[in-house]
Design a protein that fits this description.
Layout lengths: L9 E7 L8 H12 L8 E2 L3 E3 L11 E8 L7 H14 L15 E7 L4 E2 L4 E2 L8 H11 L4 E2 L2 E2 H7 L6 E2 L3
Antiparallel strand pairs: 1-4, 1-5, 2-4, 3-4, 3-10, 6-7, 8-9
Helix pairs in contact: 3-4
Length: 173
Amino acid sequence: MRRKLTNGHAFVALGANLPSDLGNPEDTLRRAMAALIPLSKHLPVISGIYESEPKDCPPGSPLYLNAVVALLPLAGEEPLSFLHKLQHIENVYGRIRTGLVNEARTLDLDLLAFGDAVSNTTELTIPHPRAHERRFVLQPWMEIAGADWLLAGRTLAQWLMDCQDPPLGRLPD
């Protein structure tokens, strides 16, 4: 039975396609999921891990592993401070930003949504502006939030039905 999620939840997409000091991309994702626990009032709701083809990435990029986590932010948490905590976790896990768009990485944590908050600044745009275009976000998000969860006026199921990305492989739990 899926835990009931509310509009107060924050959703974070996790991705990795390079090994880190902590192991292979799957090990890194699983450890990063554990690192998110202190950012939530309750145990996070975690999707399965999916393997996806690199999208809009430099040629020769390795396959990605992706997941989505729902957290209930701590009292007083704001979207930007939450983003900074996610970026700190990325740095701890060896994330290096060279400026190359969609480059391979040890860990990527994207804030997809933070409750009903809306932000459109140079530092933070939520809801995430491309989440609805990416099967590797939509499929695990729908797994934990349900097909009827709304994103930008449509359900996750509707966005997923229109998504042209190739199918994903799900890793065993």
